[in-house]
Every structure is written in structure tokens, then in C-alpha cells.
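Task: complex structure prediction.
Instruction: return C-alpha cells for all chains below.
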Amino acid sequence: DAGVIQSPRHEVTEMGQEVTLRCKPISGHNSLFWYRQTMMRGLELLIYFNNNVPIDDSGMPEDRFSAKMPNASFSTLKIQPSEPRDSAVYFCASSKNRGQETQYFGPGTRLLVL
Amino acid sequence: KNEVEQSPQNLTAQEGEFITINCSYSVGISALHWLQQHPGGGIVSLFMLSSGKKKHGRLIATINIQEKHSSLHITASHPRDSAVYICAVGSSGDKLTFGTGTRLAVRP
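Output:
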């Protein structure tokens, strides 16, 4: 299996621009997670889906952030408009089922907002 | 106070040494995870455990539910073990709460 795939791997953009991060989970996995990692706050859960349905989005920092999962093999995390404080590494992870399961992480997208 | 506390924050060891990283948590959990993040940034799940002990190669993870404490041990450490080790607890559903990580450097 190819593992969790994320794109782009690196993104540099200017403040105010829209940013879209993409994730393809491992085939057959029913849960998908979006995380953000910064030096100051470490790893934080932003939102997670189960069977394409958002279960908990309490970690989404504000309305500028939105996430979708239109089908079992694709999810997006969108920031509009982006701000410098959004600069971070964004990880997508997937797991087979709900509940406490091993999560498989993608390589991350390193975002820099100037 | 963070829900998940790790110690030490930084650790330097000589190749071959036995290493212990600790994780304490303050909430009831259904499982505890140990993750490894390499210098290149990738994150790998090492263990998920809810009781007792698990072993994989030179890595051993233990958990004491009553004391709300877990340890990750590395035997015969090697420079390729240099990474950040992250403890995470799952307390409700699928959500994980992460510790701040322990940065390990193993010198040859």
C-alpha cells in the first residue's frame, strides 16, 4: 500500500490567499484525521471524519478553516484567507475503524504564509 | 497543566545505552500511543496499548493505568533511534491528545 498521501508537500503563499491541502487515506480506512503541528503548540487535532462524515471539528481554529471529505478516498483542508500564524506542518492520518486504533500518518504539508 | 506530560524534554545518550522516556497523563484513557517523528518530519506509530507491556524489537512500552503513567524503553540504543518521541492519549472516541515530545539524540 502507498500509505497516506498528502499534497502538496510544501506550500508558500502570501497572506490573504486561499490554501487547499489534500489527503488520500489508506484504502479501506474509515477514519481520517487532520492535525496541525507547530513549535509552540506541538501536534493538535483539527478535525476528524468517520465514513466521510465530520465527527468532531472542535479543534478547527476559526471560520477561515474548513474541511471536506466528499468520498472515502479524498479529503481537503482549506484555509481562506490565510494568515502568517497559519504557518505550520499539516498532517493527515487515517485508521481502519472508530475508537482507539493505530493511526497512519501522511508525510505532512509544510505551509508557510508570508 | 497539560493533560499529557512527557519527560525528559531532551535526552542525549551514547550508542548502546538503555533509554527511558516517561509519559504521565491526567485524564481517564482508553488507549495510549507512542509515536516517533524522524528529523525529516515523518510520524510513525510505534505502539498502542491500554494495559501491560508491548515489545517490538529493541523497543518496549509499558503502561500503569492506576498510576496514569507510561514508559518507552529503548535497549541498545543506536544513532538511528535519534528522533522525537511523542506520547498521545485517547480518552474519548477517536481523539488523541498529544504530549510535547521528547527529543532524543544518540551519539555514536
